[in-house]
UniProtKB/TrEMBL annotation, chain A:
Part of the Sec protein translocase complex. Interacts with the SecYEG preprotein conducting channel. SecDF uses the proton motive force (PMF) to complete protein translocation after the ATP-dependent function of SecA. This is Protein translocase subunit SecD. The gene is secD. Residues 267-371 form the SecDF P1 head subdomain domain. The lineage of its organism: Bacteria, Pseudomonadati, Pseudomonadota, Alphaproteobacteria, Rhodobacterales. It is found in: Cell membrane. The chain crosses the membrane at residues 392-410, 488-511, 517-540. GO terms for cellular component: plasma membrane.
TrEMBL record, chain B:
The keyword Iron-sulfur does not apply. Belongs to the SecD/SecF family. SecF subfamily. It holds the Pfam family Sec_GG. It comes from the Bacteria. Forms a complex with SecD. Part of the essential Sec protein translocation apparatus which comprises SecA, SecYEG and auxiliary proteins SecDF-YajC and YidC. Gene3D superfamilies: Multidrug efflux transporter AcrB transmembrane domain. It is a multi-pass membrane protein. The chain crosses the membrane at residues 20-45, 143-164, 170-192, 246-266, 273-293. It comes from Cereibacter ovatus. It is found in: Cell membrane. GO terms for cellular component: plasma membrane. This is Protein-export membrane protein SecF. The keyword Transmembrane applies. The gene is secF.
Amino acid sequence: MLYIPLWKRVMVLGVCVLAILYAAPNLFYDRVETHNDAVAAIEASGGVATPEQQAAAGLWPDWLPSNIVNLGLDLRGGAHLLAEVKVEDVHAARMDMLWPELRDALRVLRAEVGNIRRQPAPPGELRVAISRAEGMTVAVEAARKLAQPIISLTGMGQSDIEVAAQGDVLVVRLTDAERTAMDGRTIQQSLEIIRRRVDEVGTREPTIQRQGEDRILIQVPGIGSAAELKSLIGTTAKLTFHPVISRTSDPGADAGGNLLLPAADERDIYYVLERVPVVSGDELVDAQPSFDQNNRPAVSFRFDPTGARAFGDYTAANIGKPFAIVLDNEVISAPVIQSHIAGGSGIITGSFSVEESTELAVLLRAGALPAEMTFLEERTIGPELGQDSIDAGSLAALVGMVAVVLFMVASYGLFGVFASVALATNIALLFAVLSVIGATLTLPGIAGIVLTLGMAVDANVLIFERIREELRQAKSPARAIELGFEKALSAIVDANVTTFLVAVIMFMVGAGPVRGFAVTLGIGIITSVFSALFVTRLVVAAWVNLRRPKTITV
Amino acid sequence: MRLKLAPEKTNIDFFRFAPVTFGLSVVFMVLSVVFWLTFGLNFGIDFRGGTTIRTDSAQPVDVGAYRQAIEPLGLGDVSITEVFDPGFAADQHVSQIRIQAQEDTEAVTPEMVQAVERALKTVDPSITFPSIESVGPKVSAELVWAAVLAVVAGSAGIAVYIWLRFEWQYAIGSVAALIHDVLVTIGVFSLFQIKFDLTTVAALLTILGYSINDTVVVFDRLRENLVKFKTMPLRDVMNLSVNETLSRTLMTTTTTLIALISLLVLGGDVIRGFVFAITFGIVIGTYSSVYMAKNIVLYLGVDRGGPKKDGPSGTRFAEVDA
């Protein structure tokens, strides 16, 4: 007979109740969201709540689950960017740092290697020509001494540079292991800095994650446009302070291994600067928008102890000489050092607007990006379009569901009603799971749900058709039902495993919208099998045991 | 009175017109490839890079004026289409502007987007831009590969599963049916030049999953019947199996189509292409599992084993108690 042990009945019913409980917050989306935001805000401020926050938190009872599905950018509106980090920049910078060291090491050996001259080289390579080729072995040896062991989990025991001789040119190159380790650090650092910058603007739940080798995906809901987001995170904000060698109006001037950078405010003015900075933005501890003595917008900053010492020593030794403040390869200003600046604080003046000085302060506080970024993909979706999509999707889902229910009842009568109960449970379960795992619902995701609606009844159809067949062979109702469930099982399992397989593959190889669809489809398959096999069975068994029908029509 | 999509007991000979149906399938597949090669696919920006701008205005869309406004910017190939949807308000006029990927820029330039926006504002000051999407050529090339990989991996995964659960003949039959479904869907997209983008690939994968679902149900019944009727010719067992599952096939296809048609009509224009692909594929998938997959299995033959053999192990799932 259709006997289901008590514990199993309790379990299935329990899952259904939990499903409804956890799916329910999505029906009151705005309310729960306001509540969640308020709770998070109160927590962030250490338990102190403003009256508005208190009121907002009170919109939803604390003892009820408050997980809701995240709405994807296409539904909520916002900006999406895919950035590629130019890791070669870091390789090049690394070689620039190595050059003075190598120069000093080779200068000592002048008698053997002769004159040395740096030659142009691709990023991550340093080429030095020596005038006495016979001294090459000595030079190579000296360069090798500069190598450091790599500090990383995988690159243990390897050194960071390899040295080779090509005729009279000494070639120093970063090893592959060092490149990998450096790239990893660069991306990690970029992620961290982008997160800090986005957090400073304070929007909700930004997604900032690494993608592949050297890419970063940034999704910020609620921001007006991708252009806005880009100006926030696209600026490197690399601040350095360099000694000035000379000033020129010739953009093609021969800088002879030094930097030639344009002035930000004056046209056709270029500065020749020493390549290695005295101090850099990395050594800043604070930056605030402020005003200079002429009441023009400026940014004041403070160095950390190392930065302060280097800055203090340099200014003490170079009173009367100009000093360039460089931001992202432009000379913001080049004041003359008036006196020894101790204490490590200073002010950057330039022709800023108040907005610019505020943004620059934010960028300096968050820190400079270790490398420049290029944007490969950008999408902006307006919030109205998102709302339209939600409305259209929910209407379609509702109409689809009603139509499917009507059709099932028309085809299977009472059993159609049973299947509809299972269908409703299925939807509740699906939303409960999506909410609890914090999945993101996208527009294709809604399509996935609607498709699941149609396909979810498949398992029930398989079972009911099987029961019909068994009934035709004059089996008793209870026996026919039991056999129907039993024999339909293998078809249900096989059919759903294959579809599930496709969902998994979609999730693994797919990007963006495809993933959202794969998630709802995959979860929908699991919940629909559960509801068809367990929920329908429970309902049917309860009905049979209650009524003990002599004949049934399915 | 119950609604019945198929009579209680059918006895249709699905192989009667086998040469015709099979031939038609092959013709459709060949035609699809021909369309694909001659017309090409109307790739969205996901696959060929470029920018799409969605405009929304209270004024009617004047494609000619839009084009004239954008032309002086010299952006190369620009396509402007008006979008219609029953869900739009009476004074809502939407268009979709697509601009090709610009030469020698890997990244997307905001200046270009701003220039286009300014140009359109001069034509129609009330215009707004609800969505702007740009994809660089580098990413789009990778997305093409990811898409191809997804479809191939999906088919391969299915084939392996069917092979493990059934036999290799079934696996070949199912995969042939899948290739048929995917090709014909691509053919239709090529013939009508419907936008083919990343979500279309998701649709193709869904079709794979759905089509195999149908095929597996028929195969499952076939496996069961092969054990039950050991001496019946394969062709008859197949016909019996399809007839027995016909009612279910029609029921499920109908419920799925009901849900999808609701989405097609009411779901908004943003996902219409995607829903259309799935809807079309599901009809094709049902056809192919009845007419395509089986024919191949029949042609390849099935090892029906000796009298000792206990049939493939699949039905043992039935011991699992629910």
